[in-house]
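Example for tutorial group B:
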């Protein structure tokens, strides 16, 4: 008899009662696939936990209450899991039963550590939202050949840096993580809300990342509690890049191709700096004539750097495709 690989579900919550009832109803379609459900609530005050206790039924349900902290909560819930695979079910982001089974099947077939799928985007009312152009869809177009595939860790690491500050993981609610792999590699907590970006940058060199073109999940676009200014975004991005590059060098984990790639990062970094500067000038108080003049000059430089960055990215993609064994596709 073939072994049935187990799935642990982590449900992190904080004051999300308004999203929770449809979320719990959606979970009912696949909850029997879960061997355990770990709820981590950050001391909600809007009745979130009371609703979970009243509506969520599972024989192996565990509730953890802790202080606030986005990825700190994720890490505590993940550390409590025991399953072969871990699914992080963030409130408002839904997945179908068929998609969860598909992700597990792809992960086992390709011996992957993480299986990523592109979500469909919806607003808080559940209506379709414009596609945000996240990295998973771009990677599937560039390397997928219309089939699920897995990439070697060096390619995972390189692409994680190339797409920073976006995460090539997309949304964790559309993904499945191998339990032992994730429990040994907690999400970084020092970068605020981009811990998933930092996770794949930090652990890409030891992660077999699989992607599948099949869609079966939704990502809910909702207002964030706090927004970083463009200047703060660039500062965070620089700090993330510097610290994670330094970590790679210290651990001697940068292979030949990755080392060359990291040496070329000055150009895309400058592109992001110019993007932030043109936004700052456009929204400057008073928007005086001098600001507009500077905005035109900055925008011209930004567009030129962006073009060169795109050319460089295409060159990197060609180099990856040319290397044998970097990508393994699932036979249909």
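The residue assignment follows.
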């Amino acid at each position: 008899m073939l072994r049935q690989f187990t799935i642990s579900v982590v449900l992190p919550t904080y004051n999300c009662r308004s999203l929770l009832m449809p979320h719990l109803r959606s979970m009912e379609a696949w909850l029997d696939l879960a061997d355990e459900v770990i709820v981590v609530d950050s001391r909600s005050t809007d009745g979130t936990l009371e609703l979970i206790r009243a509506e969520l039924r599972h024989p192996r349900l565990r509730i953890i209450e802790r202080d606030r902290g986005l990825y700190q909560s994720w890490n505590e819930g993940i550390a409590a899991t025991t399953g072969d695979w871990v699914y992080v079910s963030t409130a408002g982001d839904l997945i179908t039963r068929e998609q969860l089974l598909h992700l597990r099947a792809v992960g086992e077939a390709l011996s992957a550590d993480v299986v990523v799928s592109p979500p469909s985007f919806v607003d808080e009312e559940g209506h379709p939202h414009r596609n945000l152009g996240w990295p998973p869809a771009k990677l599937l177009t560039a390397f997928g050949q219309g089939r699920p595939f897995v990439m070697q860790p060096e390619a995972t690491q390189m692409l994680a840096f190339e797409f920073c500050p976006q995460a090539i993981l997309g949304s964790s609610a559309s993904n499945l993580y191998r339990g032992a792999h994730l429990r040994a590699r907690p999400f970084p907590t020092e970068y605020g809300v981009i811990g998933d970006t930092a996770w794949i940058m930090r652990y890409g060199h030891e992660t077999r990342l699989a992607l599948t073109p099949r869609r079966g999940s939704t990502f809910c676009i909702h207002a964030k509690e706090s927004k970083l200014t463009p200047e703060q975004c660039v500062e965070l991005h620089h700090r993330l890049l510097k610290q994670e590059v330094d970590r790679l060098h210290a651990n001697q984990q940068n292979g030949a191709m990755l080392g060359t790639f990291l040496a070329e990062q000055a150009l895309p970094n400058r592109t992001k700096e110019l993007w932030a500067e043109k936004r700052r000038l456009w929204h400057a108080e008073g928007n005086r004539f001098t600001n507009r003049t500077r905005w035109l000059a900055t925008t011209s430089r930004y567009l030129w750097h962006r073009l060169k960055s795109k050319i460089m990215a295409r060159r990197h993609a060609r180099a990856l495709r040319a290397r044998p064994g970097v990508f393994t596709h699932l036979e249909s």
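The chain has twelve helices and eleven strands. Compare this with the pattern of hydrophobic and polar residues in the output above.
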